[in-house]
Amino acid sequence: MTLSQDKTQRSNYTSGLSSIDPQVFEIINREHQRQKDNIELIASANFVSRAVLEATGSILTNKVAEGYPGRRYFSGCENIDELENLAIARAKELFGAAHANLEPYTGSQANHAVYLTVLKPGDRILGMDLGHGGHLSHGAKFTMTGKHYDCHFYQVDPDTECLDYDRILAQAKDIRPKLIIAGASSYPRIIDFQRFREIADAVGAYLLADIAHICGLIAAGLHPNPINHAHFVTTSTQKTLRGPRSGMILLGEHSAPEFARKIDSSVFPGVQGAVHVHAIAAKAVMLFEAMSPSFAAYQRQNLENCQILAEDLMERGFRLVSGGTDNHLMLLDLTQQGITGKEAEERLASVKITVNKNLLPYDSQKPMVCSGIRVGTSAITTRGFGSEEIHCIADLIDKMLSSEPTADTIAKVRDEVSRLCRLHPHIDSIYDQNGDRFALESQYQLQS
Ligand code: DSN
């Protein structure tokens, strides 16, 4: 290699994203703009802090590390060991856990590690039906879980649309599962983890609590914590907990002695390889933030916003599954409005309000059509929306979904969405140092 070739290569290596790959830079900028201009109501969405974003995009992505602190397969891990130990200590403190594994790449990976720990192929699982609020990784037949294990499902009560613990107990006695999963992606009510443990004990099953959606509420003391009931607690970290796209496993005092080492081996090398060290750092920051009084205040506001939105929508004639919500999300049944979830999602997207179509319990529509939508308040609460703006959002949803909106209505709703978004700028604007330019552009320029 000549000296000038070497210089060119080095300058390419140290140049920012906009000059190296304008195409990707431009796509990221467009997504940045979309996030700024849209009212985000997808219940699993949130906006991370600048600190979490910095950790996610840090030079830690360069470090290879396999294994656990003090037991690595590569050298040079002294800083990584300190980082992972810090994250583990914070997770244990925040959730009252005796053991924490911060390495799962996602919540689904965390669940697979639990399956690997206590199940053999063909063993029975009893989890929540996907169409009633469960999650894909809890045993849907077209997933790895569904293919490897004998998966059965409980549903909500047809009248109350809530979990009926007596029915679940009866079903568990009938099925005799080896593992029961308590947890959901679209269930708007409190989950009674103690009751689930009693059911598991009655049939000699292990209990897994998947708290992906309600993790932030639990951290803030606003939903019962399953740590002293479930044998395993798993979660993703990007939802109410407001961290990076990642996962975590927690064990209580009662299960750590038996399962701590086994669960660690199941995560690595059982279901995944080298640690995503940058994600460990981001999770450590997330946990630090979640211990602060301002995080608890955020979650209280999240619940208040969700209550206000639910009540406003019910006053306007919308039927909510189970008649309301106890957490950060609700399910709107649009049958009375005469539109499907898919149509509602598209109609709201046309005015920059983002929701997802969602199956309702006992839904007659196909999964890509659905009879309802899921609406959550975590992201807009992070953005600073309070009760006044929530009343406006209920009004906008009503205008768009109660009847076919006219061109004039659509224009007015768009203006109002724009006003609300400007009133509470995307949190991202705070870490954008150069006006509309993508923040990371300046942040990660290497020194040449
Ligand atoms: N589990 C999906 C959800 O609840 O939206 C994606 O994280």
Description:
With 448 residues, the chain is α/β, with parallel strands linked by helices. The chain folds into two domains: 232 residues, Aspartate Aminotransferase, domain 2, CATH 3.40.640.10; 150 residues, Aspartate Aminotransferase, domain 1, CATH 3.90.1150. Helices cover 47% and strands 12% of the residues. It has 19 helices and 15 strands. It has a seven-stranded mixed sheet, sandwiched between helices. A four-stranded antiparallel sheet has the order 11-12-15-14, with helices on one face. A two-stranded parallel ribbon has the order 1-13. Helix 5 packs parallel to helix 12 and helix 13 packs parallel to helix 16. It is globular, with a radius of gyration of 23 Å. 47% of the residues are buried.
Catalogue the ligands: D-serine
CATH superfamily of the largest domain: Type I PLP-dependent aspartate aminotransferase-like (Major domain)
Sheet with the most strands: spatial strand order: 4-10-9-8-7-5-6
- What's the count of strands? 15
Described by strand count, sense and barrel closure, the largest sheet is:
7 strands, mixed
Bin the helical content.
40-55%
Number of domains: 2
Decide which structural class fits the backbone.
alpha/beta
Cα(first) to Cα(last) distance is 19 Å
Residues in β-strands, percent: 5-15%
Alpha-carbon Rg, integer: 23 Å
Mean pLDDT: 94
